[in-house]
Amino acid sequence: MCTTILLLLVFSPGTAEETTIHVIDVGTGDAVLVETAGTCTLIDAGPERNTTAAYLTGHNITALDLFLVTSMDPGKTGGILEVMNRTVVYDYRDTGTGQVYPYYGRVLEKIENESIPHSSLAAGDIMSIGNDASIEVVPVNQTGMGYDEAVLKISVGNVSMLLLSQNGSPDISLPDPIQILRVPDHGSREAYDAGFIHRLKPEVAVISVGRTGKGPNKATVMGLEAAGAEVFQTDIRGTILITTDGEKYTTGSTRTSPAGSISLISVIETRPPG
Predict the structure, then answer these.
(1) Helix/strand/coil (H, E, C) string of 207-230?
(2) Is pLDDT at 253 greater than 60 in this prediction?
(3) Number of independent structural domains in the chain
(4) What does the alpha-carbon distance between residue 8 and residue 263 come to, in Å, rounded to a whole number?
(5) Which of 118, 143, 154, 258 could be a cystine partner for 161, CB 3.0 to 4.6 Å?
(6) Over the Cα atoms of the chain, what is R_g?
């Protein structure tokens, strides 16, 4: 169902079918596209109406097999309706906590009018995508106030990426290694927990942050690097790309023109997990 432009990040013949994870440059917000085995999954839609939708259009993506929204934070929801206007969505899931937000009624109206399957993300859910990839809703031990964001883990074979949102140190159990981390709260100091990061020991840390403002906290970046992570910022590199066959992964980046077309691709490094 997913149609896209081919990127110049190719493994040698004979390897398994590759998966590409795009941490889209949407400014200070979140949007992640996962392409694998001819399917497309979008996780969150960025803060602005057109940015994520334009990225999909620029990559000739006209259909989403799965559209996940991990919280009602404006940095994730601003582009929902425009994405739905420009693509066919076959399955939409969110946290089920949007009823208090006025615009959420418009989202539900769109879902109803187009008969889009709609369900809530539940802790422990594992959604298979493609042939050897899955997305898990990581259970969070909740204490005190309600926890209204979903923590997701993308797994492709032996390569995993953890998507944190606002809470820098959720009480979660991760028996398997995490190679790639989407840093919470756009690299703020408040969302960074040194003990949590040192327990995870990510090899790559991606910070989705805009070019205006102060950017991520310097102490957070230094802490991630001290824990052994290579830090990639969207304000510096543009969209961050992780391409994997489930055994090794390549990190790279791409910048796009205002129209969404690719203007630069740079391959940074290929490495096995662990």
Answers:
(1) ECCCCCCCCCCHHHHHHHHHCCCE
(2) yes
(3) 1
(4) 12
(5) 154
(6) 17
Q: Tell which residue, 224, 245, 139, has the closest CA to residue 181.
A: 224
Amino acid (1-letter code) at residue 184: P
Residues 255, 253: Cα–Cα separation, whole Å: 7
Neighbours of 169 (CB within 10 A): 16
In a domain, 114, yes or no: yes
Domain interval for residue 144: 19-271
Residue-wise DSSP of 97-139: -GGGSTTHHHHHHHHHHTT--EEE--TT-EEEETTTEEEEE--
Can you tell me whether residue 64 is helix, strand or coil? Answer: strand
45 within domain boundaries: yes
Contact criterion met (CB below 8 Å) for 194 and 168:
no
What pLDDT, on the 0 to 100 scale, is given for residue 176?
77
Residue 186: inside a domain: yes
CATH number of the CATH domain containing 133: 3.60.15.10
Question: Does some domain include residue 13?
Answer: no
Task: Give the span between the Cα atoms of 190 and 34, in whole angstroms.
Answer: 28
CA distance 118 to 89: 10
Percent of the chain exceeding pLDDT 70 equals: 84
Q: DSSP letter at 50? A: S
**Of 242, 246, 262, whose CA–CA distance to 254 is shortest?**
262
Task: Answer yes or no: is pLDDT of 146 > 60.
Answer: no
Residue where the block lists tokens 């690299």: 187
Residue 264 has pLDDT above 50, yes or no: no
